[in-house]
């Protein structure tokens, strides 16, 4: 029979917790804390990595010019062009022997700007001059013979009246006089023919001279010595065969194409402000000179021409221009408006006595210290720290961190 105390001791030993079981329980109790920490880290990282949504604006150069002072009805882009411009070509085909002008030279109407080889034409003129001299000599001879025949005929009339000669001799003398007079008339006609031939030869010689059709400036040389040039046959090849291009710089204007939906806003004489791409800080006063009566059906636009009210040497043909059509005229003088860099005032934040903006580049935000200037309405002048076109945050900057990825709200 077994000992009850031994059985009880065996039962109690089965309830004892070993050291391995204690360490396993401790490990099982630690796992939940590590998991929670990992989850918190992942959530925090995802929150930090998530792009912040911001509203941005661009830093832009601007100034208070006529277009800003007056109410702008419409804006359009175009190019400066001369109302009087011509590609000048020779009137006959030939080899260019001499070009007498360069780009930028001023010419007057009728001035010879180039010359073709003219040996053939000079020879033709010389021959025509010789033919004229020969015809004139023959005319003089025929006139002398006619005068002599006329005197003889008159003398025969007197002798017939005195009954010294008969009728037959008198009639013969009259016939000779009329024949000599006809020869003289033919000689005069031959002189006229010779003069016409000389004039034709001189015109052919003149065709080898390229002349300016009006006073203006030479914009470009389209041909050089030795090239074969000739008359321009069609407007589609306006520069084909041209020697020089001349424009009257007193007729410069800006040509723009206005969408037909907005053409009703414009009227002849409407004031305009013109800014050239080459001189963005200079404002040129202008007005609408012409609105074409027909539209371009392919582009659905109507050509409009804006003339300059003040002459200026900075205005050159083919320069790009921006035209602002105004309700009222602001000035009739050329004005220079200094350009300053401005950003919305909401983008500038004062921190520890410094002005700072959040600049967005490559999808990331970075705090930038700037030097500010005068405030103009809702805009602030930026003297340094930003460049034209930089994007700055105007809403959502309170939650940003340096280098944080951002998403621009549309």
Count, helices: 5
- Uncertain runs: none
CATH superfamily of the largest domain: Efflux pump adaptor protein, beta barrel domain
- Predict the CATH topology of the largest domain: Elongation Factor Tu (Ef-tu), domain 3
Q: Which sheet architecture does the biggest sheet show?
A: 9 strands, mixed
Estimated radius of gyration: 49 Å
Shape: rod-shaped
Spatial gap, N to C terminus: 93 Å
Number of domains: 4
* Count of extended strands: 24
Can you offer a commentary on this structure?
There is one protein chain. The chain folds into 4 domains: 52-64 and 339-408, conserved putative lor/sdh protein from methanococcus maripaludis s2 fold (Beta Barrel), CATH 2.40.420.20; 66-83 and 248-336, Elongation Factor Tu (Ef-tu), domain 3 (Beta Barrel); 89-117 and 208-247, RNA polymerase II/Efflux pump adaptor protein, barrel-sandwich hybrid domain (OB fold (Dihydrolipoamide Acetyltransferase, E2P), Beta Barrel), CATH 2.40.50.100; 119-206. It contains 5 helices and 24 strands. The mean pLDDT is 83. The two termini are 93 Å apart. A hairpin with a 2-residue loop joins strand 13 (271-276) and strand 14. Strands 1, 2, 18, 19, 20, 21, 22, 23 and 24 form a 9-stranded mixed β-sheet that branches. A 6-stranded antiparallel barrel has the order 3-12-15-14-13-16. The longest helix has 43 residues, at 119-161. With 410 residues, it is of the alpha+beta class. The chain has helices spanning 4-14, 19-49, 66-69, 119-161, 167-206; strands at residues 52-58, 60-62, 72-82, 85-89, 94-99, 106-107, 112-116, 209-211, 216-221, 228-229, 242-247, 252-259, 271-276, 279-291, 301-308, 320-326, 335-336, 340-344, 349-351, 354-361, 364-376, 379-384, 391-395, 406-408.
């Amino acid at each position: 029979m077994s000992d009850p105390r031994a059985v009880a001791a065996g039962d109690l030993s089965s309830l004892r917790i070993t050291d391995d079981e204690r360490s396993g329980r401790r490990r099982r109790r630690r796992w939940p804390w590590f998991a929670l920490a990992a989850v918190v880290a992942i959530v925090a990282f995802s929150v930090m990595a998530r792009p912040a949504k911001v509203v941005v604006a661009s830093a832009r150069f601007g100034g208070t010019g006529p277009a800003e002072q007056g109410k702008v009805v419409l804006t359009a882009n175009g190019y400066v062009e001369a109302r009087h411009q011509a590609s000048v070509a020779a009137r006959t085909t030939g080899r260019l022997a001499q070009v007498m002008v360069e780009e930028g030279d001023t010419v007057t109407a009728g001035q010879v700007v180039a010359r073709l080889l003219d040996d053939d034409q000079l020879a033709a003129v010389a021959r025509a001059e010789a033919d004229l001299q020969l015809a004139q000599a023959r005319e003089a001879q025929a006139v002398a013979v006619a005068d002599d025949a006329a005197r003889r005929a008159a003398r025969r009339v007197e002798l017939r009246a005195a009954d010294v000669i008969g009728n037959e001799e008198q009639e013969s003398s009259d016939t000779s006089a009329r024949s000599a007079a006809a020869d003289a008339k033919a000689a005069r006609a031959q002189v006229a023919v010779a003069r016409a031939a000389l004039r034709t030869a001189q015109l052919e010689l003149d065709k080898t001279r390229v002349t300016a059709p009006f006073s203006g400036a030479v914009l470009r040389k389209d041909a050089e010595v030795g090239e074969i040039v000739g008359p321009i046959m069609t407007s589609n090849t306006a520069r084909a065969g041209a020697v020089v291009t001349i424009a009257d710089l007193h007729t410069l204007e800006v040509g723009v194409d206005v969408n037909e939906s907005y053409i009703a806003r414009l009227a002849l004489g409407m004031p305009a402000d013109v800014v050239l791409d080459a001189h963005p800080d200079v404002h040129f006063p202008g007005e609408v000179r012409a609105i074409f009566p027909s539209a371009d059906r392919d582009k659905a636009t109507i050509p409009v021409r804006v003339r300059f009210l003040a002459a200026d040497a900075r205005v050159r043909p083919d320069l790009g221009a921006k035209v602002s059509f105004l309700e009222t005229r602001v000035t009739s003088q050329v004005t220079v408006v200094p350009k300053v860099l401005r950003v919305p005032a909401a983008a500038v934040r004062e921190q520890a006595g410094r002005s700072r903006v959040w600049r967005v580049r490559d999808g990331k935000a970075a705090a930038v210290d700037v030097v500010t200037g005068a405030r103009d309405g809702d805009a602030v002048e930026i003297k340094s720290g930003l460049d034209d076109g930089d994007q700055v945050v105007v809403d959502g900057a309170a939650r940003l961190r340096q280098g944080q990825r951002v998403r621009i709200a549309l």
